[in-house]
Amino acid sequence: MPLNRESLSSLKEKTYSNYMSLLRPLDKTPRHNILKVLALCEAGAQHQLLGDIDFLSEQLFPDTASSDYLRMHWSDRVAPLYAGTAAGTAIQKGAQGSVVPAGTVYVSQSGKRYYTDTTHKVGNDGTVSVRIYAEESGRESNLDEGEELAISSAIPTGVETKATVASGGIAGGTDAETDEAYRNRVLLYQRNFSRYGKPGDFAAWAIDSSVEVTKAWEIKGCYGVFGVMLVIVLGGNHFDGINRVANTDAVRDYIRTLCPPVQFTVRSPELVELNPAIRLLEDEDTVSNRERVTTRLKSYLESKAKPGCTIKESTLKSVCADGFFVTEVKLSIDGGDKQFTAFQYPVLGSVRWT
Predict the structure, then answer these.
(1) DSSP H/E element including 241
(2) Where is the Baseplate protein J-like barrel domain (predicted)?
(3) Burial call 91-101: b when 16+ CB within 10 Å, e when fewer
(4) Are the beta carbons of 130 and 116 closer than 8 angstroms?
(5) Residue 85: other Cβ atoms inside 10 A
(6) Which H helix or E strand runs over 167?
(7) pLDDT per position in the chain (354 positions), as tens?
(8) Tell me, what DSSP letter sits at residue 7?
(9) N or C: lower Cβ tally within 10 Å for the chain?
């Protein structure tokens, strides 16, 4: 840990007390040789200084620096990604002409609170789309379409006490970047610090733009042959779950501040589930082997899946069999080999064990 220096008066008092306890000046014979006492004090000071030097030497390099020093030294070049706030639309019912005022607070069944920042008026059909924002940042504030919200503030006249999350859900809430994720981005920046629009730079800028983005790809010429580029972005991973990026406009705006003047667009692809049917040998069909096969499939998709890829049954068969625990696999996908477009991304759905 870094040096926390005490005040000079405190150090003087401690040193004086130490000498008084060791030398015992009121005794007829000193308890210790004064040279030994001075040597101990000097050795202690040197030990403290060497410890500080050893700590500070580790802070010179991002792969060994502590999280505080890492962000302190690199935040001007690689901006840390902080938690994002979820937002979306809820359908509020009420009497025609009644008003949902700004500052109305809703609460979800999980206890998360949401608020409005503008006034909304119920239309002729007895409903109004209310734009709401989460009070707390993070993924836990995201809600799916159809979930119920209850008004927890003063209930406006003529308005029902409950609302329903509209199409698209309450999305965009993301957890802050972890220390290790930030360290990896710093190391990636060091390996590729000159970004001017070469292949891979747009994808790297997309990942730097938001903590919501963990995967990005570049597809050139998607809308023509004159430099128009498609940047595909996704969040999460195949082990914990892949998520579409809700705020692609923020990713686009960030890239525009850094990239050369070329035309590009940012999209988050449709997630297409693979639901393979798998049969193992009878003596190998165990719970642990099923988990092992599922993990191997997720690992393969994590490393190889991308928009526009082709997933073949034969490839997945070879992935599932490790030659030791699982020696033979029969696998099929509905419709056979799958070819995905640039706007589609494969994820593992439900595995049917036959």
Answers:
(1) strand 241-244
(2) 94-169
(3) ebbbeeebbbe
(4) yes
(5) 15
(6) strand 159-171
(7) 455 667 777 777 777 787 777 776 666 655 556 766 777 777 778 888 888 888 998 998 999 999 999 999 999 888 898 888 999 999 999 999 999 999 999 999 999 999 999 999 999 999 999 999 999 999 899 999 999 999 999 999 999 999 999 998 999 888 888 999 899 889 888 877 788 788 889 999 999 998 889 999 999 865 544 456 889 999 999 999 999 998 899 999 999 988 888 889 999 999 999 999 999 999 999 999 999 999 999 999 999 999 999 999 999 999 999 888 999 999 999 889 999 999 999 999 999 998
(8) P
(9) N
Euclidean distance between CA atoms 98 and 183, whole angstroms: 52
Q: Which two tokens stand for residue 317?
A: 């068969």
Rounded to the nearest 5°, which phi and psi values hold at 191?
-75, -25
Q: Report d(CA 20, CA 166) in Å as an integer.
A: 76
Q: Rg of the chain over CA atoms, in angstroms?
A: 30
Neighbouring residues of 33: CB distance < 8 A, sequence distance ≥ 6: none
Torsion sign over Cα 169, 172, 175, 180: positive
> Which tokens hold the place of 19?
């000498």
Q: How far apart are CA 344 and CA 82, in angstroms?
A: 28
Spatial separation of the C-alpha atoms in residues 230 and 265, rounded to whole Å: 5
pTM > 0.85: yes or no: no
If we measure between CA atoms, which residue out of 315, 317, 319 comes closest to residue 330? 317
Q: Which residues are bridge partners to 127 per DSSP?
A: 93
| Tokens of residue 157, six digits | 């006249």
Task: State which H helix or E strand residue 116 sits in.
Answer: strand 113-116
Q: How far apart are CA 337 and CA 352, in angstroms?
A: 17
Pair type for strands 264-267 and 229-237 = parallel
The residue among 247, 85, 89, 86 whose CA lies nearest residue 166 is 89
